[in-house]
Design brief:
Elements: H1 7-25, H2 29-36, H3 40-48, H4 55-64, H5 70-83, H6 98-106, E1 109-114, H7 125-135, H8 141-154, H9 156-159, E2 166-172, H10 174-177, H11 183-197, E3 202-207, E4 221-225, E5 234-237, E6 244-246, H12 249-265, H13 269-282
Length: about 280
């Protein structure tokens, strides 16, 4: 799944380096924007890796920051060039969460809390089709089919023979009882979930109803971590019209602590699997 050049990660690393150069110069994003006659929001988007950056942008910023080492400039220019390449997901057209896919493709580990549904990386085709069509009632059939294919291809990260994504999932018990598609679809989905949970790099826990109020009561979120020390962890919160990416250490720490509480409040791995098995059998009746 992962390519040698991941444009999302390249943009992110390049943005971090540009921010570092700006801070070394003692300049604010507003001051840089005034010098280049651009908006402050453009500088912010370039630094957080959410916007494609051109080699001209890099050249102009290096000029403002008075970078004298041409090797540094050339390296940043190459990163800008790499960041404009397309990842595999671009072949599917306009995907709303393409930034997230880029991060997931390069991540070493992923922790997910899902309060309503089975998480995407562990969905069967039938379940994914029902979820996507139900969640996008006004989308065309072609668009929904495209999103299903993207979701299934993303699953290559957890089925890879070498260096698969380490996945830890906490599912609210509600996700087991919500009938998505049909009872046969749910039985197939839960049996698939049991099978996947037995892989050594995948952990699934269920947060039971009896817990009541809990640390994840405000909704779904994911924490992505990367092998390269230069890439800070990211908290991803999916929205209807826009998504939220949190990278500040204090934000990531807060969500990490919340996740540890969720894990502690959940059934252990064996208990979780037993509960999933019981619910799967109920769908067979």
């Amino acid at each position: 799944m992962a390519s040698n050049v991941n444009p999302t990660v390249r943009r992110r690393r390049l943005g971090q380096e540009l921010r570092r150069l700006r801070e070394l110069k003692g300049m604010t994003a507003e001051e840089v924007a005034e010098r280049l006659l651009v908006s402050q929001s453009k500088i912010s988007r370039l630094e957080n890796g959410r916007r494609s950056i051109s080699q001209r942008d890099v050249r102009d910023l290096c000029g403002v920051y008075e970078v004298e080492d041409q090797r540094i400039v050339d390296s940043l220019m190459q990163m800008a060039k790499d960041s404009r390449q397309q990842g595999w997901w671009h072949a599917f057209g306009d995907i709303p969460y393409s930034v997230y896919i880029g991060l997931e493709t390069d991540a070493e580990s992923l922790r997910v809390y899902e309060p309503q549904i089975i998480t995407g990386l562990l969905q069967t085709r039938a379940y994914a089709e029902a979820i996507i069509r139900g969640g996008s009632p006004e989308a065309t059939e072609a668009d929904n089919d495209k999103r299903v294919e993207v979701r299934l291809r993303r699953q290559g990260r957890i089925t890879a023979d070498t260096e698969p994504l380490r996945l830890w999932v906490v599912l609210d018990e509600a996700s087991l009882h919500r009938i998505v598609g049909s009872r046969p679809v749910m039985r197939e989905q839960l049996e698939h979930l049991i099978e996947m949970s037995q892989l050594p790099h995948i952990t699934v826990q269920v947060l039971p109803f009896e817990v009541g109020a809990h640390a994840g009561i405000n909704g779904q979120y994911s924490i992505l971590e990367f092998a390269d020390a230069a890439d800070s962890s990211v908290v991803y919160i999916e929205g209807v019209t826009s998504d939220l990416y949190l990278e500040k250490p204090l934000d990531v720490q807060k969500y990490t602590v919340m996740y540890e509480h969720l894990r502690a409040q959940s059934l252990n791995v064996d208990q979780s699997r037993q509960l999933i098995e019981r619910v799967a059998k109920e769908y067979a009746r």
